Amino acid sequence: MLRRLTGFMDRHWKTVLSFSLGLCLCFGLALVSTPSTAQSITSGRVTEILDSDQVYIQEAIARVNDTASQGQRVRTGSARAQINFNTGAVARLASNSVLTIGQCANLQSGTLLVNGSINGCTPSTLAGVRGTTYLLSVDEAGRETIQVLEGEVTLSKQVADDAAAAPPSDAAAAPLESPGVTSDVNRESITLTAGEKIQTTEGEEFGTVERMTANDFIEILLGELFDAFLTELPGMDQIRESFTQLFPDVPYPSGGSPVESIAPPRPSLPF
Fold it and tell me: For residue 172, what is the enclosing H or E element?
């Protein structure tokens, strides 16, 4: 009897142990496979200003370390600016651009470089990311261009509800539906990978996905969103690797000489 009882207990504990190990394994795999989602933006701090002092938060002149809160607008004139978000992501705003701090980095016009895990949006497009580097631009005709330097970006067209949720330039931001989550069965969704670009216009479908040329990539790397910034973009190693993989026979470009960022003038010396 004692031997039977001991054997039963051994088999029972083996079963429990096997079940527990299997449950832990499944839970661990679920954690590994669950994609990270971009965090919500609540503020953006101006960390660098180049070319002039024409950077504004709600039409007031902005200085380095000034912060734009959710729902506020950041605008550049002849200047360029770097903005560090509360999420740890970094953005660079080209000259003559307008950005609203909302549930996404909401670009109304101009060009925005996004690095890190934040979603970007334009008047007609939501860009969902998991941590990548990409450009959004909206020209004077309303034509939107999305270019991915490294990583992946999932794009979806905004529908009426999303457009209503996107904050106007001077209003408090309202929550935007997460890009890639399609509540409307007719919503179009498309994924861009490193070295791909696409154009679209509000009220129209996405254009054809195109491959960026080496010249396209180099023009960006030597352009105003990279040139002369004193702080290196956190994702530069990944961008270099992406460029090398896409264009193995093309040398990686080196930037020009830096210029000084906007700072208080130094007092002149008496000699």
Answer: none
